[in-house]
Amino acid sequence: MAKVQGPLMSLKATGTFGKTLTYQGRAGSTAVFLPKTPYDPKSVAQVAHREYVKRGIYYWHTMGAPYQTLWNNFVI
Q1: How far is CA 63 from CA 1, 51, 52, 57, in A?
Q2: Domain range spanning residue 23?
Q3: What is the helix, strand, coil percentage profile of the chain, to 5?
């Protein structure tokens, strides 16, 4: 969320406004940028590992409280 003090581009604004513009304070002024989408190259191994973790989280939440408590008591 953008933090604005006064009209945009006149006094001070920082942050991202509506996921469309990013305001940064620079030396004595404010700069405006389009938000950048980070480049995240995913290898086949990374995608497989992320899917494996997602499935584990899904099964943990669908398992039920008694089994979760049993597991937590066993691990701790």
Answers
A1: 37, 18, 16, 10
A2: 3-33
A3: 40, 25, 35
Establish if 39 belongs to a structural domain: no
- Residue 1 · residue 15 · CB < 8 Å: yes
pTM for the complete prediction? 0.43
At position 2, the amino acid (one-letter code) is A
The pLDDT tens digits of the residues spanning 25-50 come to: 777 777 778 877 778 888 999 999 99
- Number of structural domains (the chain) is 2
Rounded to the nearest 10 degrees, how much is the dihedral formed by the CA atoms of 16, 20, 25, 28?
-150
